[in-house]
User: Fold these one by one.
Assistant:
Number 1:
Amino acid sequence: MKKGSVIIVGTGPGLGSSLARKFAKEGHHVFVARRERNAAALDELCDEIKNNGGNATAIATDARDEDQVINLFSKVSEHGQIDCVIFNIGANVFFPIKDTTARVFKKVWEMATFAGFLVGRESAKHMKNKGTIIFTGATASLRGSSGFSAFSSAKFGLRALAQSLARELGPQGIHVVHTIIDGAIDHPWIKENFPDTYKLKAVDGILNPDQIAETYYNLHLQEKSVWTHEIDLRPYMEKF
């Protein structure tokens, strides 16, 4: 059977790219989305996937902009059925509460919650009685740490959105998943800003994005009788 399209919103150099490679390898046409300023990186990823025999298309999209999200789904739907949509925007920032401006708080909410709503809504409109929607969460989805008031509240909101959509769309045949990524992911930003943490990669102490992608793909394959709504992923040495 011909496999449908996959949309990955928030296709950065870490997990987003690993997800694109995995779903393309499995025969899906992958549509990768980030803001316009990252267009060159998206094109490079698509070229890599094509060179390896897959299908990938970049569509520059600011997921906080309603018209751009609508346009993204409209373009992808021209290629046929949408099988899976992954919302993978991070929005992780550290700001002590006294330094958190209204602009910062609102921007983080727009990135992690409002954008998730727009993507979830358009997914529901375009998926017909089948499909998977996966929202990437974080440790902050479960508890608010010191200095992360904006990030935690936004991730709490995304988790609530995912729960609501799961209850509404599940009976319609659409599988909604919320993943809790509890720990640092192997990513250039972690390597640059947290070198001591990044050293743990040598002993599998940080999350491997390719392995996370394997888990996401297996979630997409689940039968209706055993759907997972929420799953947490963490390195074996991570405290919880």
Number 2:
Amino acid sequence: MKKTIENEPDAKEAIRSRALELGFDVVGFAPAALNENARNRLSEFISNGYHGDMGWLAERTQQRSQPIDLWPRVQSVIVVGLNYGSDEDPLEVIGKPERGSISVYARGRDYHDVVKKKLRSLARFIVDELSGDVKFFVDTAPVMEKPLAQKAGLGWQGKHTNLVSKTVGSWLFLGEIFTNLSLGPDSESKDICGSCSRCLTACPTEAFPAPYKLDAQRCISYLTIEHKGHIPREFRRAIGNRIYGCDDCLAVCPWNKFAKKTNEFELEARLELKWPRLADLVQLNDTDFRTIFSGSPVKRLGRDRFIRNVLIAIGNSGILELAALAKARLIDESPLVRAMAVWALLQLLPNKNFQQIRLHHRNRETNIEVLKEWDNPY
């Protein structure tokens, strides 16, 4: 016979215990309501256009603003966190221009798959043992995860707008279970960033117009992952060799003194994704790209946008030997790739050599964005 919440005063601890058994590092309980401050921050983010190409953020804003608008039956929100920390300095690769920097979170298996599997087991436990109805989410629904996590006591939103935990630092994947069970909330985490501003000053593209405010259109993670078009020229130099995401604002946080390596083997970095060679990556065709990044969140980016990013890194490398590989991409089928091949060559080659290549290729080009790269060198 199933248990009921009325006969189970320690239901929270049963859920917490089960979540930790499943491998989650932290778990907390939040009320199914967000305060006005969280709603206002979302509204301001959208109204300022800081979301850029991420039109899905502007959609269903009402459901994002209140859990009950996403599911009317929700009474409580269980928030879990899974540590994906590395035992290496995530910024070390930035000093190796022949290599590409892939954000720590994307070096292992796609976190959606890993977290969802564990969440499904936890949800089944709540249904079977506590007769609760549930819905669970992993970064794929209109849920304001970080404000809910703060209300659940997992940490606070730092000045870089990401969650910071006193126990595991900055490296957390979040997941949520909405339930119709009335579970008492945990104590909300307090913001203890104090006067520290390391995350703000570390940003290579100055993506923070003010503390606790992010202009995603300037963020390297947005530019290299979410942005579908040509990356604006003003940001290309600052991107350096970051070919998928950016960890700078997270990595410099002093609270990472409490960070530890993940215990989840599926999230550990695959060797070929730690410090990949730009010379190898730029030559990938679509089949090779899909094979290498199978099971990785990088795969969702698609080959063309990924090679776009790699060519920017090549242009920033200062390694003349990579110019021949960039030149080979001038006849790529993708205009995203061809445009950045032009830019990379302009950075690497003496003007005389660049102009010789331009004479051969420019008149064959038909895409207006690629022509802009040929005709507006800087």
Number 3:
Amino acid sequence: MRTGAMRVAEISLPAIRRNVARIRDLTGGAVIVVVKAGGYGHGAAHAAAAAVEGGAAMVATADLEEALALREAGIDAPILCWLHGPRTDFAAGVREGIELAVNNLEQLDGIAAAAELAGRPATVQLKIDTGLSRNGIARDRWDDVFARAAELQRSGRILVRGVFSHLANAGAENDSAQAAVFDEAIERLRRQGVDPEMRHLAASAATLSSPHLHYNTVRVGVAAYGLSPFADKTSAQLGLEPAMTLRSEIVALRAVPAGTGVSYGYNHVCETATTLALVPMGYADGMPRALNGAGAWVTVAGEHRPIVGRIGMDQFIVDVGPLAGRLALGEPVVLFGDPERGNPPVEIWAGLMRTINYEIVVGIGPRVVRVAVDEEPAVGEDSEAGQVGASDEEPAG
């Protein structure tokens, strides 16, 4: 671990493993864990390895660059990626055994050409637009793409391993309508003589709430990291454990009298004499500036203490008040983590910012060192940054 790291996102590998195992047991089918965007901010390679150890059949990224980076990091599990630009080098993906999603006929032909160049078949999954109106094969092109896929599979240039789509999460009625479109696509694909091994429609929300949408495979992102995809259900209620604990430390303590202004603009003035603690994290690290004055808090010495004053690019201030006599420089500060261990849940930030927990964890900046921890905290305790035992680092991206 980097000496003196002041900003740490501690990632529990056991939590990721248990979350994936929980999802696998819940669905009874194959589980694909999405590790795009740096493993939702957790560190893609560590997250991918833990997911596979937890029982994931495959991991997935958005684009090919992310998938190739996993190969370079030593991840040899099956990898799917689905978002391609017009200059994507499919040959690199085929050479590395990456499963490539097909969103249109042009991509299918490009992948087939790359397979010939690489001298080996390409494994593909067909992505269907069932109503999200983003990526995927448009309904009026299904027959053309499916027929071409069947031809290429018969010739040995491609193997169609999967077919999938993505729900809009626009309510049960819309989910069912999308599932009906998906079913039609699968049937029309079978008529062409192609019957893919994997069929997946459900992401985290449908996986945890709609068993009828599981098919034989589910594709989860945020749930694998122990976060709830629902505004009205906590991780604990879903049987999930948040894997990320965002930590920093106190680097300065200052006793101040009543009436002292705090940080830029003096939008906070101390009503009584107190002690202020300086914590070296700010909006450059993914801590939203708009949290100031919003009621956010952190955990210091096992107690909840308020963030006061404006959040800067590199630092923020906590009123540690009655704790002052118990604190020294280097005292750990937990910004968010598992509430079952007494830490603030990331959903506090998300709620105050009127956003979702996904955006918060993905937005944790590159200065924050990701430390993968492969040990369990002692019962009733949370491990301390800088005392993480068996661990390894990974860059944010």
